[in-house]
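=== RUN LOG ===
request id: a7f3
mode: sequence -> structure
chains: 1
length: 201
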Amino acid sequence: MVDLIGPYGSGEYGAGPYGSAYPPFGIESATALTNTLVRVRYTALFDAAFPPLLSVSNYSISPALTILAVALESAQTVLLTTHPQNQVVYTVTVQEALGYFGQPLDPNLDEAMFQGILALPSFIAIATSKTRVRAFFSEVMLQNPSLTDTSQYVLTDLNNNPNRAIPTTRSSWMVFVALSRYSTASSQKSLTNAPPPPTLI
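=== RESULT ===
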């Protein structure tokens, strides 16, 4: 038999006259938006004035991933700026949080998992002559046939007219792309690479 205290009961029915008015408060989800940005969504509106909410030390991510900053995104979400992620499943944990109506953090809702995003290497292209373009990669690339495979590169003008390209590697950071000798230096062109050559790990 349950012992009811007061006119409406308490104990297992909550502290208020009709039971607790608010559902458990904590982290609802976490999502990687970019390779260095994670959105943490709470189950309800939080108290944005609660000091720990935007403190870097209030959050942790495992496997080890450094959090550089915490910013307010909305009344229910914060954004974590991190070091570059790997393509693994991470768990973000919060130590303290307070709901808008003073709800404490539910210990069963203090963490959430998210899939990390692996940043792919990119490059910029600079014309060094009428017949040569230099591609600078963001990472050291593995020097193998894929890096200088003509089929990996597409050079087009603004009307999508292709130019013949003959890539020749000079280092693991850059590729020289030789063009047809009748290429017009004054016209704008786009150099693309798909899929990107493998990086040097």
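=== NOTES ===
The longest strand covers residues 27-34.
The chain has two domains: 11-115, 123-193.
=== END ===
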